[in-house]
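Pasting as-is:
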Amino acid sequence: MTDELDARFADADRWRDEALRLRAILRSEGLGEALKWRKPCYTHDGENIAILQRMKSFLALMFFKGALLDDPEGALESQGENSRSARRLCFTSVAQVEERESVVRALVRSAIQVEAEGLELPERPALVLAPELQERLDADPALKAAFEALTPGRQRAYNLHVAGAKQASTRARRVAQHVPKILAGKGLRDR
């Protein structure tokens, strides 16, 4: 795996130097390194700790349980309004990585401690479905069974997509548009 990761880092056309610097810091903290979701993922005792995400305008170091980390400097940011546990640090230069090295190291140590203590976020509240989605599921037992078989994240993604429309007609159209994917057991962004 190291050879494949070495090649990915060497061939990166975006944020290569920043990623290499972060990689060195993460590995020096004793984290394992693997390719997961086509990205460099850093682990400790088999648990996912953080992942590097190359975005257009920044490189992110995303901590899977970032909401549980000790972050006295408030360096971590949420990925979005619907992000529950993941938090990230964003970088746009090698100088930024070097300036924040002590913060990165402290967050990695905190993430390892969170895993060692077995800390988990409280249960997510029950998903309240958009009325148009709920009505369609209630009317079609096969669709309801397929929807309930999806992972909670996939269910949330469909619900957010449907509920995000302002008009009821658009919400109903979005539900109808995705029925085949739901029946096929696929998530909103799956191909």
